[in-house]
């Protein structure tokens, strides 16, 4: 189907003004389809336009009482001619439930057979649910009616009332963009509360009832604290009435900011033990989506090129408000270790792009830029801007922007103007350097006879002079710090800091956006000093510097691996432990370095840490998970499953059992029958997904062919099971077993677009990529697909990014192995 272009959107927005939507859904028609009747009232200044609708069957359409030929539907668009100044369009259709997390998704819980639905209208999935003028700048109020089974609960953007058994009516909403209209319907378990005049609720599947009952207090507490903080910061109160948080099955993203009814992936209703870092991540997700209620929902971007502003603002606010208003205080540690690393990698790939791009891409191509640059880099830059402007000016501009564009649409230029009116100066130059130019500078430190010299180097492809306001920290042999605040506004800046200090760290507070390079003496002293540096953010800055230098083939990956081994015995943050282990898994073992003997060394360090780590702590859980991932001691792992030799303080709950089973599957120590037995023990939907991953990981030709067939040919495979099959398939210890599938990937992946749509297509292409095949032929085959414009853009983007990573790994191996 053609994707909406910015020119097409501008033409339609100039011609139409949408006054209201009335949508009536019938969810009682069976397991495959549902009924959809949409009445749209709109004004027009042009004689023709089109409406977007993607039905299973288009039954009837009338425009101002006159029938429209349904045979005119072409690739999801129905032309409308003879438009009047005032119009009423009625579209009656049968729609397909989806299994890919978009449109009206229907999932059946394996635990009890109950079916659940939810609507995901982003980015262009709204027409799979109801007929609409599907673009962000044609906002209108919505009224929904829903017919559902009598034991179902229905929620949506407006307050829902059950007017008769199985029949629900939802209150008229404020003007909404099509992409965040939602309905949540099913036999959900609901808990209610209220705060400051706002009705609150949380819902989940019935099989997660006990978990939601345990977790609801924390979710409600974070929600209430965040409402208070946002009401303090913003002059506009929350405007969308009730506030529901629906934890729904098989959700692709972390969450979606639908006004009044936010949807979350239901893994956030923790059924097993989790770390403090995972709890704080959930809190940030809650706070992130709440920020969108003002920035994104009340004021919405005019076109998708400004989607970054919604996400960057919410990302920044998630970390800021979680820190200031909730009990979770590790937010900027998480940002430094995880979110920033995500963005730093994206900003160095061939697909890098400005944070604030021009409005040139169509809707689907804009989705490709929904990445670490749009989230993490934008958030880091906004954090800098808030510090530079001061909160008075920063928030005054934001509040003026919301007031001027309430329930409408705006651009980044509109926001810059409001900041300027509030007192900011020089924002155009700042925006050009930081937001409209891709890439990132390198900040390196060298020692002189009298101090430290910082050097700023812009990327050759994107030369621009960016100012960096940061802190340089010097540490002595005992880990005592001396810090100096520095403005790097030239290519070389002298810093008054003792050059004899053991370790010198530029941007120790993680305040800028740059590649950080340590000098040779600091690197030599790192193993002894880093365990004594207590600040979690600074430790993350060091690790990011090491990770980036290794990726650039400037630092031997064996040195990087030694840093991992050196940090693990003393790391006191579960976020830090998880980051170290994830880097070892995704970049070191089997990528930059051979899988063995390094895997064995890592497992040995983890085993030793298990003996000393505090029982029942988050760090212990992270270490135990890591040991389960990297150990080859099948007998010990099988003992854990049997309840023997489990470290004191570790609970072998469902999710940890599956992690152990996955490693045993990779080792060939269990087979299909053992996985079946574990699934009988945990017959939930989560168990089905875990079992799928384990089956794909089995080291047999039969298991690999079975998994590959599902990935490449099964159009009905639910999205989570698809992702699990991809995740289990490749492993560096199974290189010879999966070698034949490298060429098959490039031959077959383009065809998956015909099986699936939207988000899941690109995600599958990324997860199924042969990431451990570090060979030039992989880069060459990828280049061939990238040049083929008949291949879906999302697939090409995933392949391009993955190929860039393989090319960097080849350079690292060439330099050091």
Automatic annotation (TrEMBL):
GO terms for cellular component: cytoplasm; extracellular space; membrane. Residues 504-808 form the ERAP1-like C-terminal domain. One of its GO terms (molecular function) is peptide binding. GO terms for biological process: peptide catabolic process; proteolysis. Residues 220-433 form the Peptidase M1 membrane alanine aminopeptidase domain. It catalyses: Release of an N-terminal amino acid, Xaa-|-Yaa- from a peptide, amide or arylamide. Xaa is preferably Ala, but may be most amino acids including Pro (slow action). When a terminal hydrophobic residue is followed by a prolyl residue, the two may be released as an intact Xaa-Pro dipeptide. The keyword Zinc applies. Belongs to the peptidase M1 family. It comes from the Bacteria. Its EC number is 3.4.11.2. Pfam families: ERAP1_C, Peptidase_M1. InterPro entries: Aminopeptidase_N-like_N_sf, ERAP1-like_C_dom, Pept_M1_aminopeptidase, Peptidase_M1, Peptidase_M1_aminopeptidases, Peptidase_M1_dom, Peptidase_M4/M1_CTD_sf. Its cofactor is Zn(2+). It is an enzyme of class 3 (hydrolase). This is Aminopeptidase N. Keywords: Aminopeptidase, Hydrolase, Metal-binding, Metalloprotease, Protease, Zinc. CDD domains: M1_APN.
């Amino acid at each position: 189907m053609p994707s909406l272009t910015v020119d097409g959107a501008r033409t339609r927005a100039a011609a139409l003004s949408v006054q209201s939507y009335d949508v009536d859904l019938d969810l009682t028609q069976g397991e495959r389809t549902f009924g959809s009747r949409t009445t749209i009232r709109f004004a027009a200044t042009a004689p023709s336009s089109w409406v977007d609708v993607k039905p299973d069957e288009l039954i009837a359409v009338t425009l101002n009482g006159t029938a429209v030929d349904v045979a005119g539907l072409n690739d999801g668009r129905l032309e409308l001619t003879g438009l009047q100044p005032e119009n009423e369009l009625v579209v009656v259709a049968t729609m397909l439930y989806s299994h890919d997390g978009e449109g009206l998704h229907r999932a059946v819980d394996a635990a009890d057979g109950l079916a659940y639905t939810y609507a995901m209208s982003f980015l262009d999935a709204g027409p799979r649910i109801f007929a609409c003028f599907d673009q962000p700048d044609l906002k209108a109020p919505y009224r929904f009616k829903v017919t559902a089974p009598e034991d179902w609960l229905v929620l949506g953007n407006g307050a829902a009332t059950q007017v008769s058994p199985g029949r629900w009516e939802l209150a008229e909403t404020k003007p909404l963009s099509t992409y965040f209209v939602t309905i949540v319907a099913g036999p959900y378990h609901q808990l209610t509360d209220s705060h400051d005049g706002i009705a609150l609720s949380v819902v989940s599947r019935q099989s997660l009832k006990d978990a939601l009952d345990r977790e609801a207090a924390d979710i409600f507490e974070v929600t209430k604290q965040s409402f208070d903080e946002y009401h303090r910061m913003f002059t506009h109160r929350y405007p969308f009435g009730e506030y529901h948080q629906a934890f729904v099955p098989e959700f692709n993203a972390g969450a979606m900011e639908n006004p009044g009814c936010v949807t979350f992936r239901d893994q956030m209703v923790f059924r097993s033990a989790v770390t403090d870092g995972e709890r704080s991540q959930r809190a940030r997700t809650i706070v992130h989506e709440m920020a969108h209620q003002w920035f994104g929902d009340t004021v919405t971007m005019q076109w998708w090129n400004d989607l970054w502003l919604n996400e960057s603002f919410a990302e920044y606010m998630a970390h800021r408000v979680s820190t200031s208003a909730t009990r979770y205080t590790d937010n900027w540690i998480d940002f430094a270790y995880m979110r920033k690393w995500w963005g730093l990698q994206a900003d160095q790939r061939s697909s890098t792009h400005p944070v604030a791009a021009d409005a040139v891409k169509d809707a689907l191509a804009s989705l490709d830029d929904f990445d670490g640059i749009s989230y993490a880099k934008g958030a880091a830059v906004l954090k800098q801007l808030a510090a530079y402007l001061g909160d008075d000016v920063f928030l005054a501009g934001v509040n003026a922007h919301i007031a001027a564009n309430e329930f409408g649409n705006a651009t980044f230029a509109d926001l810059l103007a409001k900041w300027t009116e509030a007192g900011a100066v020089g924002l155009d130059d700042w925006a050009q350097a930081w937001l409209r130019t891709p890439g990132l500078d390198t900040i390196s430190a060298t020692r002189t006879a009298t101090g430290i010299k910082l050097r700023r180097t812009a990327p050759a492809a994107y030369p621009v002079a960016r100012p960096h306001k940061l802190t340089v920290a010097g540490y002595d042999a005992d880990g005592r710090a001396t810090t100096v605040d520095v403005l790097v506004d030239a290519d070389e800046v002298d810093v008054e800091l003792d050059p004899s200090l053991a370790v010198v760290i530029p941007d120790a507070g993680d305040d800028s956006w740059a590649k950080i390079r340590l000098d040779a003496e600091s690197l030599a002293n790192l193993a002894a000093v880093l365990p004594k540096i207590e600040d979690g953010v600074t430790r993350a800055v060091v690790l990011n510097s090491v990770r980036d230098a290794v990726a650039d083939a400037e630092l031997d990956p064996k040195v990087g691996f030694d840093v991992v081994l050196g940090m693990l015995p003393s790391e006191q943050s579960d976020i830090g432990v998880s980051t170290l282990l994830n880097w070892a898994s995704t970049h070191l073992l089997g990528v930059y370095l051979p899988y063995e003997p390094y895997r064995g060394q890592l497992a040995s360090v983890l085993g030793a840490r298990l003996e000393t780590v505090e029982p029942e702590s988050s760090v212990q859980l992270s270490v135990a998970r890591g040991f389960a991932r990297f150990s080859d001691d099948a007998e010990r792992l099988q003992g854990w499953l049997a309840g023997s030799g489990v470290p004191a303080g570790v609970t072998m709950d469902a999710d940890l059992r599956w992690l152990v089973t996955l490693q045993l599957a990779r080792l060939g120590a269990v087979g299909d029958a053992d996985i079946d037995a574990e699934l009988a023990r945990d017959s939930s939907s989560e168990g089905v997904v875990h079992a799928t991953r384990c089956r794909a990981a089995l080291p047999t030709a039969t298991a690999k062919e079975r998994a590959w067939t599902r990935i490449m040919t099964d159009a009905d495979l639910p999205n989570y099971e698809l992702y699990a099959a991809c995740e289990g398939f490749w492993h560096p210890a199974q290189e010879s077993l999966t070698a034949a599938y490298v060429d098959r990937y490039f031959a077959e992946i383009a065809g998956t677009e015909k099986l699936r749509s939207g988000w899941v297509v690109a995600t599958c292409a990324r997860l199924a990529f042969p990431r451990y095949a570090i060979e030039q032929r992989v880069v060459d085959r990828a280049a061939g697909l990238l040049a083929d414009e008949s291949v879906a853009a999302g697939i090409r983007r995933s392949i391009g990014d993955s190929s860039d990573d393989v090319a960097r790994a080849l350079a690292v191996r060439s330099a050091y192995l």
